[in-house]
Amino acid sequence: NFFLIKLKDIDSTLYQKIMLNFHGILVRDCSTFTGMSNKFIRVAVRTHKDNLTMLKAIYDINDNLNKYKNN
């Protein structure tokens, strides 16, 4: 199963790069999906541990968005 997440204040391409480069997590950029824009990503539901790691990464990006945008 997957979660579709709508982003705010960041585009999907940059978010995907941050997740992979800083957190080692691959998310799907949905900007090429029919009816989607560059404000959507898709993430897979995995193990409980993996999901907690992903949530920590999401919170980190949200808390430090300006830092990531300037890198």
Task: Write a concise keyword list for the protein shown above.
globular; 71 residues; 3 helices; alpha+beta; three-stranded antiparallel sheet
Topology:
Layout: E1 2-6, H1 12-23, E2 28-29, E3 40-44, H2 48-63, H3 65-69
Mean pLDDT: 93
- Terminal CA distance: 32 Å
* Overall radius of gyration: 12 Å
Using the alpha-carbon principal axes, give the shape: globular
Helical amount: 40-55%
Q: Would you tell me the structural class of the helices and strands?
A: alpha+beta
pLDDT < 50 stretches? none
Oligomeric state of the chains in view: single chain
Main sheet strand line-up: 1-3-2
- Write down the secondary-structure element order: EHEEHH
Note the beta-strand portion: 15-25%
Largest sheet: 3 strands, antiparallel
Overall number of strands:
3
Q: Note the total helix count.
A: 3
Molecular structure report:
The protein is α+β, with helices and mostly antiparallel strands. It is built from three helices and three strands; from the N terminus they run βαββαα. The protein has helices at 12-23, 48-63, 65-69; strands spanning 2-6, 28-29, 40-44. A three-stranded antiparallel sheet has the order 1-3-2, covered by helices on one side. It is globular and about 30 Å long.
